[in-house]
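Annotated sample (chain length 556).
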Amino acid sequence: LVGNLATEDGVDRQSQKVPAMPLFPMSSKRSSSKAMRLKRPRSPAVPGSSAKKPRCHAHQAVSHICLRHPKAPVGEAWPVNDLRFFDAPTEPFCEINYGPLLKEVVKERGWKYSANPCHGTYDADRDKSTFYVKEFEASLRGKTPAALFGREGKVESDGYRLQAIPLPKHALWMFGRLPYRVPGTANDRAYDREDLVKIVVEHGVDLPGKAGNYRIAKFPGTETILFKTRLTEAFCEKPWYPKTYILPRDKAAFLQEIRQQGNGHSNFWIGKPRNDYGGSGIRVYKGKDPALRKALKQCQSGQSIMQNYIADPLLIGGYKFHMRIHLVITNVEPLQAYVQENGQCLFATKPYTLSGKTMGDDFDAPVHVTNMGLNAVPSNKDNFLREKPVIGRGQQIRVRQLMTYLASVYPGFDKRIIWQQILQIASDTAVYIGKSIQRNSKVVADRHFEIFGMDLMLDKDLKVWMCEVNTDPGIGYPDKEVLGSPNPDYNKEFHACSETLHDLFCLLGLDAGGETEQGLPAALVRAGDERRESVTQVTSAKRKTCQPLPAPAQNG
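Output written by the structure step:
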């Protein structure tokens, strides 16, 4: 599911813009991959490294996972004239959704773009969007607002008169949980809500034609499903999920844990709010730090987690990083899920250390946290813009670059071992999300899909750990400037986001019946035709490769 900057044979496919199919079916095939034995090199790019062989047992738990690229899209191609794409109602005014990159991608791929699934207004002074969602409901139910809601119901509480919006034969609704108000609800307050998604769930069963003729880029309730507290309850027994305590519920057990650990190397902890993102509210502590006990005493209400800190992460050039890998779920019954083979590595921008001077009350975020929002700050400008080994200026490289680097410094490195671990985590996550959705809602097959951002870490022994999973991962234009200077990661992030959107559409396959700008059948190009080496000017899709998810374990 990936647009690659370069393939293993060294040919730059990105400049050719030649796609290959990006899909991965769940697989239970067994792999014949052998155990990987690695030697850690002595290298100035990895401070503190030694020639000792690291413990590497991760392959034993995932050696059965077969890595396969999908051979066909998940959906049937729509007629070219029916490629109707709908963005959020106020997107043209305030970029409430993905931003202009998504619009450019869908128009490049031949879709008819609209931001009118229902009407919306935007109050710039209060930065508040209003969605008239009753229009969307009436459209889905094939009625006029007056016929459905009556003469009085046709007029909203703010005086807006609802209008009839014809339902097209096919529609792709690319929106989900967004901050807006609905007149007459919640005291006219704007907040993150998913009324449009709920309308599709409640009334979409009666839509005409095949279920796959109408798609929405959201499953109901996934924001709550992926609260860090919920993930902790779901994955507490998984070997790839760090030991975690939910506070204040588990406060007594956690206090006992840190007492027992004493000065042990495992007695480092990272505190995270239940549902914040971008690194907000994070802090790292030593288990015996008085600041940690003080924080626990103050933790009387609300919910947060205290998670065992991965104290020995893999370092590149002396810097800590996490991987952002995209997971796409296209059905929950039966479960269909896919993982993007490429991804992004986001780095902290100060050299990593376990010094107490960077933790607790003296917490130094750019040492321990990799999110851009905590690294691209005025006080850390020089570090952010500094040239770093392997990374360069800024804080990003692509996952494929990481794999190339690891192969160059680890004799015997096999990237399949890392991808097998990633796929096991993705499989368990997809099963959990799918079951949770089915428990709370009844969704029509082939109607919903959603892209998630998995934040994963590698430790020094190349074991993959889950940090968290996010809904609505940022896939849009990056800022051109950071801290008053040109953004050194602009091109990297732009290509990553653009490729991810193209990969997603290639996976869905809805526009596979169209033509590229050069007139070549898009399906031929996206299917990875053997003659694709000669196709050099295709611009309506990117090259795609991807990895499959394994079948869920027998115990569910």
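Annotation: The chain is about 30% helix and 15% strand.
Annotation: The first strand starts at residue 84 and ends at 86.
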